[in-house]
């Protein structure tokens, strides 16, 4: 019997290796999640708490019933891996040649290329894929339900808070960028 928890851990190690290969020395600075800071960080902490609750429930659910491997679990590992790759690619594109502070100082035009030309928040898209993939890989339908009820709304709340800050800072330039791209899903939302 294949232990899917070990497979997920192996995928995490693989993603770390890919992250080191793609980001190199910028690995740790790229994962300091600096974005448009709100006056208080409550949206960040709500997202973290919701994610930890979903993760805890998914792990508890998996460890309680240890299901046999099913196709949905394999699909979950693939979705989890895709989310991890998307996160690495998004971070690389954001921190490719400038720091976050340099991009803010010059405006956010530099962050409007590649993935960011189509999705304003590819990192959030990646987090959603990671959480859904993990819940599927562990066959935790309770975790999936909590992801829909808690995690996605927390991500959308954080995005709305950041968009308010970006509008206050950049005004019409932000509105132009916003009209040309979607929040999380290219061409849809």
The arrangement of helices and strands along the chain is: HHHHHHHH
The computed structural class is mainly alpha
Q: How many distinct domains?
A: 1
Count of runs of 4 or more consecutive helical residues? 8
* β-strand amount: under 5%
Number of strands: 0
Q: Biggest sheet: strands, sense, closure? A: none
Topology:
Blueprint: H1 4-23, H2 27-30, H3 42-65, H4 71-94, H5 100-105, H6 122-137, H7 141-170, H8 172-180
Helix pairs in contact: 1-4, 3-7, 4-6, 6-7, 7-8
Tell me what you see in this structure.
- It is a single chain.
- With 189 residues, the protein is mainly α.
- The protein has one domain.
- It is built from 8 helices and no strands.
- It starts with a helix and ends in a 9-residue tail after the last helix.
